[in-house]
Amino acid sequence: MERRRESGARLSSKTTNFPGREITGEDVEAEKYLTIAYGSDLKYSWTAGVGISRYLDGLKNGVLWARKCRGCGRTLIPPRMYCEECFRPTDEWVKVRDTGKVNTFSIVYVNTDASRRKKPILVSIVEIDGASPEMGILHLLGEVAPKDVTVGMKVKAVWKPKGQRTGAITDIVHFKPV
Ligand SMILES: [Zn+2]
User: Fold this and answer.
1) Is 165 exposed, middle or buried (0-12, 13-18, 19+ CB in 10 A)?
2) Separation of alpha carbons 50 and 65, rounded Å
């Protein structure tokens, strides 16, 4: 006699007999089987990688680290351990300044949930002084009216107090005009 699952499906075209008895949802609900409730307590650790780890550690200490490639001569920020232009590992760590200029910006009137903001936020790519041209980081502009922001405007990082920094890009509150 051929045995089938409740769905009617066979195990395979050659194997049609299942050993034992299939547990059904009704059996479980009727508590025909011993069940054990088990909550897992999993902990994860995650690494940001060699380049970004040093970058984040630098932010905690009020320093911007970049990575230099001798192949193309570029200074990369955020730092990368591999140069995507030269297809080779980058060569050395360099500190860059916490000043720069606005490469591009947006005046944002919506929140992440699409609700409207009364006061806009200013989001910018800031080209960092000491890094290569067009090498910049995405951050907020502050202490400036939206109408006064211009491409090329010189800005400087406003850091959180040392004790409040956590090794995140938000250790810089925003960039303000200089
Ligand atoms: Zn390169």
Assistant:
1) middle
2) 12
As residues whose CB is below 5 A from the ion ligand 1, the structure lists: 69, 71-72, 83, 85-86
CA distance 91 to 82: 9
Token couple for 156: 């400087």
- Given a contact cutoff of 8 angstroms between Cβ atoms, the answer to whether 79 and 48 are in contact is no
List strands edge to edge, sheet with 64-68.
75-76, 64-68, 92-96
Measure 70 CA to ligand 1 centroid, in angstroms.
6
State the distance from the centre of ligand 1 to the C-alpha of 85, rounded, in angstroms.
Answer: 5
State pLDDT tens for residues 89-110: 999 999 999 999 999 999 999 9
pTM, rounded to two decimals: 0.73
Tell me how far the alpha carbon of residue 48 lies from the centroid of ligand 1, in angstroms: 22
CA distance 136 to 37: 51
